[in-house]
């Protein structure tokens, strides 16, 4: 049994709603956690967040009821170990194209005998004070989600999902479109059919399918859920700020124009 509510939702294929961090500062992490998102993913792949600054984000989220995930820069055993040792409770592993790569990600996140994660005293076990308890629970509590971002991954999706310890997948539609030779054409029928293949495979394997709804309109969220996605990420910290600022500026300009009229 897992004590991680988001991993539990993944295993039960229940909708769980998260958000995304790219700003390398604790304040956005604190704000998004305070909103009440069930999980928050920090982007160590495409942002200037490293393990040191990720730790600061974790401290900002601590005690606010949100489960922290790290999208690691690559499917690297040491990188996965490090984000877990500082306190991540889930990992999103990019560009997983084969079952062998999925197995490597799982092994990096699990202690022996299931995996190869190394033991240590660190933040995740309160610097050793809770070492035995953490080690006993970790393999059940750490969530492993692999990212499906290529034609090759779609072709191998059933085998990837068959890997024990893969709790779900997270589709990267833009990268996927590039692998089909139509970069940016995420609405193209080829990409949409690829996404459908992944969703259907997840249903067969009884594992969760995830999607980043970057522009989190009500219609887009409803569509994601209707399509079969359950691990759903809404927006991104910088975009939230940009949208709110633009809306406020537009409202002010409209008020000024009305007043001068």
Report on this model:
The chain is α/β, with parallel strands linked by helices. It has one domain (5-260): Phosphoenolpyruvate-binding domains (TIM Barrel, Alpha-Beta Barrel), CATH 3.20.20.60. It has 12 helices and 8 strands. It has helices at 5-12, 26-35, 51-61, 77-85, 99-109, 131-141, 151-155, 157-161, 173-179, 189-205, 218-227, 237-260; strands at residues 16-21, 39-43, 67-71, 90-93, 143-148, 168-171, 208-213, 231-234. The chain has an 8-stranded parallel beta barrel with strand order 1-2-3-4-5-6-7-8, surrounded by 7 helices. Helix 4 (77-85) links the parallel strand 3 (67-71) and strand 4 (90-93). Helix 2 (26-35) packs parallel to helix 3. The model has no long low-confidence stretch (mean pLDDT 97).
Which helices and strands, and how do they pair?
Layout (H helix, E strand, L loop, with lengths): L4 H8 L3 E6 L4 H10 L3 E5 L7 H11 L5 E5 L5 H9 L4 E4 L5 H11 L21 H11 L1 E6 L2 H5 L1 H5 L6 E4 L1 H7 L9 H17 L2 E6 L4 H10 L3 E4 L2 H24 L1
Parallel strand pairs: 1-2, 1-8, 2-3, 3-4, 4-5, 5-6, 6-7, 7-8
- Describe the sheet with the most strands: 8 strands, parallel, barrel
Q: How many structural domains does the protein architecture include? A: 1
Structural class determined from secondary elements: alpha/beta
Question: What gyration radius follows from the Cα positions, in whole Å?
Answer: 19 Å
Q: Could you spell the SSE succession in H and E letters?
A: HEHEHEHEHHEHHEHHEHEH
Label this structure with key terms.
single chain; 12 helices; alpha/beta; TIM Barrel; eight-stranded parallel barrel; 261 residues; globular
